[in-house]
Amino acid sequence: MVRNHQVLYVDLIGTCYDILTKPMPLMQRHVDIHRHKVIMGVHNKPRRDKHGDAVDHMASANASFNEDRASDNLSAMDLEINQEIPIDDPSQVVLHKEMFTDIAAANRDVRFSQDFMDFAFAESGRISESKSVTLENAFPFPIDVDWALLNVLNKTTGQWVKNPFRIKPEHARIEANGSLNFSVDFAPYEPDQYFFQTAQCFVQVQNGGLSKNKRVIAQEAQKQAKANMTKSSMSKTKTLLGSMKKSKYEDAVNEDIDPPICMNVRLVGHSFPPGSQPFIPMVKLSPQNNVTFPSCGPNESVYQTIQISNTSDTPVYYKILQDSTKTFKAFPAVGLIHGKSFGIVCFEFNPR
């Protein structure tokens, strides 16, 4: 989110379960630990088991370990990860750099072959010609990919209909250092309309079994022992997931869980037949003519934002042509602004 030229962010955390599958609840602490591992550069290393050995992802899932082995030897990686988590207060430059990182950038651990797909015209009620997008996995372990394309509201009929964009397969596993092609279709459900969707997928890293953070376990055990002296009668706690033993959540706090990675591809298409009159855009830019950046040195970055206001009652689709020299860069480069609304576009100035 951008407000007054400042980049803000918020972690949205939730755990979904059904009768058969009840994963360990994801908590803010797990996100903080994962962010710390990314800072330390160890998030893409194989996770250690309870004996300090790297998890073998090619081994059988039911392979057993010798329980008699000494468990008090921490590997160098464990010691590095278990360091105190620093205060997460990155500068605005760091946040802007993270926001501007291309979804197809070569330095990403998981990256798409493209971040934008334009289907142009497709007849209402028909399926367009399929396009493909490739997801590459640079991790040394497998990943599971789950696409989340929800139903949309048809404003003409007031009924919920299938998403006009469809991606197959919806669920897939990509092996270590592998890639997979996804097929994308566009099927507009209404004539003479623009369709825009930010298609999201969640990537779950399969980095072996969950490992214990021994230092945190000891600290939590001491806190819990004190708490039990005053609340010994409370054996269960009412939560959003129902009535469950507190130990279940204590285990969740002590587990090292990799949160899913959210990836997205912007999809656009329309159902205006050839020769028809599309919506006439009526927009205002603020500032109107020039965007002036503060001075900076070579390879440094400074940022500015503009506001695009849609003064009409119909949606407006915009696309910003990127600078071939990459001196200037816009985010987001494409978008849809609904009637009587506005959008914020952030620009980066990075002289070479």
N- to C-terminal distance: 27 Å
- How is the main sheet built? 5 strands, mixed
Percent of residues in helices: 10-25%
Elements, N to C (H/E):
EEHHHEEEEEEEEEEEHEEHEEEEEEEE
Strand content: 25-35%
**Integer-rounded radius of gyration:** 24 Å
Tally of strands: 23
Largest sheet: spatial strand order: 4-17-12-6-10
Mean pLDDT: 78
Low-confidence stretches: 57-87, 209-218, 233-252
Secondary structure tally, helices: 5
User: Would you tell me the structural class of the helices and strands?
Assistant: alpha+beta
Please state the overall shape, judged from the principal axes of the Cα atoms.
globular
Task: Quickly describe the structure.
This protein has 352 residues and is α+β, with helices and mostly antiparallel strands. The chain has five helices and 23 strands. Among the domains are: 115 residues, no CATH class; 74 residues, Immunoglobulins (Immunoglobulin-like), CATH 2.60.40.10.
